[in-house]
Amino acid sequence: MGISETMRLGHLAIAAGLAAGFGLTVCGTGALAADATATQPVMGSAPEPMPTGWTLKGVVVLSRHGMRGPTYAVDCDQAGGNPNGCLDAVGQLPWPTLGVVAGHLLPEGYDRVRSMGRYYRLRYAEDGVLPKTGCPVPKSVYFIADTDERVVMTAGAVMDGMFPGCDIDNLVVQGDIYRGPSCGYSKEKSAKSAQDFAGGSWEKAAKGDLAGPIAALDKVVGPLKPEVCTALGLKSPCSSADIPTTDSKPGVINFLSQPAEQLIMQYGSGLPISEVGWGRVAEATGMSTSEGIGYINKIHAFNDWVLNSSPYDAARKGSQVLDVVERNVRDVVEGKGAQFRFLSSHDNYILHVGGLLGLTWKLPSYAEHQVPLAGSIAFEVWQPPAGEPVVRLVYAAQSIDQIRDNPDLTPQSPPGLQVLPVKDCKPGPSGSCAWPAFKKIADHAIIKACVRRS
């Protein structure tokens, strides 16, 4: 993620309302979770072919960065006396550093992203957007990234996978490309709305669908250190399961969100199974390690979906990124500039766009609404023989086992794929949305005051 993902565990505890004297600082709003998930997609369903005679004009790919190290310090030496300021404070045993500075792309992450780049080349060469061999026509491809190392490196890895040996210089790196102005953002309104979007109660979620994953991750992590128990206002011995969760405060859900996703990083980077979650995942879940990691990540998926896809947060923090997407799609529709555009970003931005467009997904091996590492939503612009173009959204992401094994990805052996219908848009062929309708929906969702134009 972007800014929110860099919070230390101490800040997560504060955000959850666990430290005395602090209130909830999470964000989100809008309709009840049940309303947002009324239409369930088919898991991992590949796109149906577009009608004969339709041509692909171009594609805009909004991607998450690849596999990275923890975004806050593992080592507690830099915690400044705060026992919650480092990952090693969670549990009794040290967490793997994965060999990189906090938040940097892993070497294994680079390799997996490069595999996605090779897949994009093969996939979109099939429909004539990219050449099947050799280098692309100058200015026919375009890459955008913010200034985070893992995001820039992800764009570079995709370029390497798509066009090895070529000179591709059309890369824009801009720190605030996806981040708009504050536009009157209210933490209090956000917190109340997040509660509504979570179904009215974080506690109900923790004791309901998330009870099993929370219990499993609690077994994996084990008891917390005594000083952490004290900092959280708990008596020692304690564990993460003891962290209070209320209707309005996400408590244990928020606390365990990032540790849950770290299991994917450990597994995907190729650590021995005995070192992934200290070898405890299978026993804690009663599943294989990869299945257990997917099960535990229901915590992370739910937490991040609620905080980023709810209408209040999505509109105020996501208007900028949706504006960037829409402007690039419009250029493709109008035949201006590059036919292939890659927007390297973070999972929170994908969740913002998902909230604004009413998207829902469940990709193979992942929990509903989880944003996989290096996964992307492709906004494909298709032109029928007559009439207006349509936009088809296709999510592509390597499964948890594909991230670990890094197999060759081809149109015949692809990553997980799923078409995402746009809510409130009359579906066209293969779940597409007519461009005028897509533009109208996006324009209505975007708050202009929350958009920064360069």
UniProtKB/TrEMBL annotation:
Keywords: Hydrolase. Pfam families: His_Phos_2 (PF00328). It comes from the Bacteria. CDD domains: HP_HAP_like. The keyword Metal-binding does not apply. GO terms for molecular function: sugar-phosphatase activity. GO terms for cellular component: outer membrane-bounded periplasmic space. InterPro entries: Acid_Pase_AS (IPR033379), His_Pase_clade-2 (IPR000560), His_PPase_superfam (IPR029033), Histidine_acid_phosphatase (IPR050645). Transmembrane segments: none annotated. The keyword Hydrolase applies. Coiled coil: none annotated. Belongs to the histidine acid phosphatase family. PANTHER family: 2-PHOSPHOXYLOSE PHOSPHATASE 1, ACID PHOSPHATASE-RELATED. This is Histidine-type phosphatase.
